[in-house]
Amino acid sequence: MVTSTGGPRVLLRQLRETMAEQLASQARLDKIVGLIADNMHADVCSFYVLRDDGALELFASKGLAAESVHMTTLRLGEGLVGQIAADAEPLNLDDATSHPSFAYRPETGEERYNAFLGVPVLRAGQTLGVLVVQNVERRHYGEDEIEAMLTTATILAEMVATSDFDNLIKPGSDIDLRRPRMFTGVSFTDGIALGKVVLHDPRVVVTNFIADDTDAEKLRLETALEKMRMSIDVMLDHGDMAGPTDHREILETYRMFANDRGWVHRLTEAIENGLSAEAAVERVQNDTRARMLRQTDPYIRDRLHDLDDLANRLLRVLTGDGHALSRKVLPDNAILVARNMGPAELLEYDRTKLRGIVLEEGGSTAHVAIVARSLGMVAVGQAQSIVSMCETGDDIILDGTAGIVHLRPTPDIEQAYIDKVKVSAKRRAHYAALKDKPSITRDGVAIALLHNSGLVADLPMLDDTGAVGVGLFRTELQFMIASKLPKLSEQAELYAEAMAIAGDRPVVFRLLDIGGDKVLPYQRSMTEENPAMGFRSIRLGLERPGLLRTQIRALLLAANGRPLKILVPMVTETFEFVRTRLVVDKEVDRLRRAGAPLPSRLELGVMVEVPSLLFELDQLLPLADFVSIGSNDLVQFLTASDRANPRVAKVYDPIGMPRLRAIRLVVDAARRYNIPITMCGELAGKPLEALALMAVGMTRLSMGPASIGPIKELILNLDLEPIRQSVNAALSDGADGISIRQLLQEWIDKQKLPV
């Protein structure tokens, strides 16, 4: 038994002393396996490391033939060691040679050893290697010995992860922890970005692994657990959490896990075996993560996220680390990696250094993806498990066009993408050469191309792309960036600067669209079960008239005698637009009485994004000066599919028959009432989707600046009329089996369009 030489706590103290000694890496590793063998009265102790080629290499051994070190290898899943690495589970045998997985390696001389105990060496649930002890005599190792091995493996995992270990690796090889990985996700924005990983919620780095005082560490754990439980209870008792919501369900799950006796017992047991409180959390979560990652049940895998978050929460309490990263300090070419995040969190970062964002979750029409497009950064979502696979500082490449992420890319992949960036630069130069050409189809249909924007920093790109104006200026981004509610003067200054940069080109200012996942950090908001269909946008503005009046007043002052276009979002019924117009009229009258210059022309437009407006068009459009379609929300509500939920967001084609008929309905109504109509959703920036919009009569398209060039090139090569006739016939006939997307692809091939 391990107690014969003092138990695991003595072994850990000896390991700490060894780690502090001035030894070469191999000498340190040799001494460590010797200490383990002596402490456990084992005839053999061996340490295998998983390489990037899937082989487990013997890195150190006491008891096996010395010449077998760095020579003996087993494939992942091969032999007892390979099985442990693949399953991430300990294996305890009293007669190893009779086991069907036993693999004989003559150079090791291990055939005479019968008893075998092997445990995986894990980090963030990933197998880094295998630690083994063996004895000549047949015996079954006890639970305390297994626990001692697992505890020791936690220390070895951190040693393997350090740069000091690198000189033990053969040239041209590497350990599996640092091998290149590729993730196939979903494209949020086009483009390529090369840079360094910055974890949005970085893993707490445990530096103190070994307990000096076991009782003191158990008290630290108990105190931290109580503090964490209290913080969860406080959040659950908060008024914002009243009623059943997704957020409340998550916190209820946290509370359940935080009070789970089995989890607490495993943490306490790890401390009793000599680990510090934070190392115990790391050790237990490593084991849990390794087991859950190998489950096929999606429910169990989803719970892994909850346990990861809870373990990180507890580690932060134990280490006093509120957040390991100052968001103000970023490396050049930073690429943000997160499980998920809101647009306000993204805007907290230094955008001059941020080149891209990768999310494990999210949909391409989620607000954070829209903000990423507005900021001109490459974004990829649904890159599963990437957070646990990377570390801050890792090299990373985002291929936004293909939705692919390369983590720690090989030199040849990196060079290939450098070459792609050069080609992309040539494409941008090609598009820049088109900027002054009128956007007219080959058969004479003029298509107005405009920008979607939200930051003054975006607006100089109007000159670069040749866009005729800004079809959608998202005013809420100013509010999301600010640490407190912007004053009237601050709002007016921003809007005036935007108009000044745009010059004679029109800018359509959308009134505040906050709520949903666009929460202002300084404004208390009630948590809602379905925020996308809750208290947001103009609903919020009409209920909080001070906020609405202040913004309208700022816009009128900013115009200072220039033309002004104001867009009202999320209108559900005509009376909401009428009420908003009354607020605008009152502010205009107030400005007139004050003797301030009025806008030379004031236009108030309505945004069609709620399906109920499809049945109000004849009442609404005579009151509006222009109309815009918000395709993101319109498609979301028409299909009853949450656009941030990847399981349903990708099911419904936004230009499928029902959605395209709805868009055509609005286009036809705008034509009847002779008012301009613009598509300012994400559809307009995608070539095939833009072609569908033009086919149903849309001649004003607003999109991200990067999309202007490709869409203009499409227009310049397009004969639109035959495509219009074909698409409208399909929509009117309603024939079964006709796919609009397939129909358009046939026309693209026929006209050889650059899509």
Description:
- By secondary structure, the chain is of the alpha/beta class.
- It is built from 27 helices and 22 strands.
- Strand 19, helix 20 (617-620) and strand 20 form a beta-alpha-beta unit.
- 45% of the residues are buried.
The residue fraction in helices comes out at 40-55%
**Cα radius of gyration in angstroms:** 31 Å
Morphology:
elongated
| Terminus-to-terminus distance | 70 Å
Low-confidence stretches: 1-5
Largest sheet composition: 8 strands, mixed
How much of the residues is beta strand, in percent?
A: 15-25%
Strand order of the largest sheet: 7-14-13-9-10-11-12-8
List keywords for this structure.
single chain; 755 residues; alpha/beta; 27 helices; 15% strand
Overview in brief:
With 755 residues, the protein is α/β, with parallel strands linked by helices.
SSE layout and pairings?
Elements: H1 7-20, H2 25-39, E1 44-50, E2 55-62, E3 73-75, H3 79-87, E4 91-93, E5 115-123, E6 126-135, H4 143-161, E7 181-184, E8 186-187, E9 192-199, H5 214-237, H6 246-258, H7 261-272, H8 277-293, H9 298-319, E10 334-338, H10 343-347, E11 354-359, H11 367-374, E12 378-381, H12 386-389, E13 395-399, E14 404-407, H13 411-432, E15 448-453, H14 461-465, E16 470-474, H15 476-481, H16 488-502, E17 507-510, H17 537-543, H18 545-559, E18 564-568, H19 574-593, E19 602-608, H20 617-620, E20 626-629, H21 631-639, H22 646-649, H23 657-672, E21 677-679, H24 687-695, E22 700-703, H25 705-716, H26 720-733, H27 740-751
Parallel strand pairs: 9-10, 10-11, 11-12, 15-16, 15-22, 16-17, 17-18, 18-19, 19-20, 20-21
Antiparallel strand pairs: 1-2, 1-6, 2-3, 4-5, 5-6, 7-14, 8-12, 9-13, 13-14
Helix pairs in contact: 1-2, 1-4, 5-6, 5-7, 5-9, 6-9, 7-8, 8-9, 13-25, 16-18, 17-18, 18-19, 24-27, 26-27
